[in-house]
Amino acid sequence: MTDIETVERASGTGIPVRGNDIDTDQIIPARFMKVVTFDGLGQFAFHDQRFTDKDEPKDHPFNEDRFRDASVMVVNANFGCGSSREHAPQALVRWGIDAIVGESFAEIFAGNCLALGVPTVTASADDIEALQNYAEENPDAEIEVDVAAETVRYGETEIDATVDDAQRKALVEGVWDTTALLKSNAEAVARTASDLPYVEGAE
């Protein structure tokens, strides 16, 4: 039987990525989508924001060594807008991101994050600015995202956060990974399939 992973909380050091309306083409440029698997996409996350046409590094938090082990990204409003490419959250996960806290997220981007078990948690603009400043000034300090309790804790501070009801239920109850869910109920799936007239040889 396959274990189903629940995501009640995520924690790690933070990385602030500032700016509203950061779209999926900025997160992973389209030319890097010609891949058979998502492996290796992490190195191309925010590529055009991080490098010039001559591959010279620009100022960007993803280029800074002090944030290299960060796993909690802190963003502003409408993050992940634009095309629905699932490569965007895939690139972030492969870079090392486990949770994203922001003012707001594009709906499809948040759904694609959920499919990977990555919570997208929202908080007020003032709280986000304070958290970005904290991550900027304390790159080695841990930030805890409590999905079940809808809070974000850092230092001596705890802020109220919001997790979409359906997302919170899926993460906390471990039903976000539909493949694992099907595998964990293989016998029930086989019984149902055997009753379907258009499925032959189901066991």
Describe this structure in words.
The structure is a single chain. This protein is an alpha/beta fold. Helices cover 31% and strands 15% of the residues. It has helices spanning 24-27, 47-50, 87-95, 107-114, 125-137, 165-173, 178-184, 186-194, and strands at 9-16, 72-74, 99-102, 120-122, 142-146, 151-154, 157-160.
Give a quick summary of the entry.
The protein has 203 residues and is of the alpha/beta class. Helices cover 31% and strands 15% of the residues.
Average pLDDT figure: 92
Strand order of the largest sheet: 4-3-2-1-5-6-7
The percent of residues in helical segments reads 25-40%
Q: What does the radius of gyration come to?
A: 19 Å
Measured between the Cα atoms of the first and last residue, the distance is 16 Å
Number of strands: 7
- What are the low-pLDDT stretches, counting only 5+ consecutive residues below 50? none
Provide the structure class: alpha/beta
Q: Strand-residue fraction?
A: 15-25%
